[in-house]
Amino acid sequence: MAASRARTATVAIRGPLRREHLPGLFERTCETLSRARPELLLCEVSGLATDAVAVDALARLALAARQHGCEVLLSGAGEELCELVRFMGLADVLRTAPVAASGDAAGRGRLS
Q: What pLDDT shows up at residue 64?
């Protein structure tokens, strides 16, 4: 699904993110999804730390998106976060936006 063709809702996830923040993040995301009814949830994660709490948060957002009939696309994910998402088996539900090709950076940040 191309982001430019889909109805898109965007959420920016900022750090530091702690485990106790996750229920509120999930609830706010569900409210956004209910209100906007998007086909695509674009998650801006460029400022997010690469750790298990971040991946837990993203997995919860993927669950919320699935419950509301839309997909998730991560924007700004660094290679370390992408590797952790793959390691945790979530690459199929947490896709990343293509990174602009520039020399050796081509494809960096892609999960698939």
A: 95
Q: Which of 45, 13, 44 is nearest to 26 (CA)?
A: 13
Q: Which of helix, strand or coil describes residue 99?
A: coil
- Give the residue from 71, 80, 83, 79 showing the smallest Cα distance to 42: 71
Domains, the chain, ordered by start: 8-105 (3.30.750.24)
The string of pLDDT tens digits covering residues 56-108 is: 999 999 999 999 999 999 999 999 999 999 999 999 999 988 765 443 333 33
Closest by CA position to 97, among listed 53, 44, 60, 52: 44
3-state SS assignment for residue 104: helix
Separation of alpha carbons 67 and 65, rounded Å: 5
Considering only the C-alpha atoms of the chain, give the largest distance between any 2 of them, rounded to a whole number of Å: 41
Q: pLDDT tens digits, residue range 12-55? A: 998 889 999 999 999 999 999 999 999 999 999 998 999 999 99
Tokens 């991560």 -> residue: 74
What residue type is 15 in one-letter code?
Answer: G
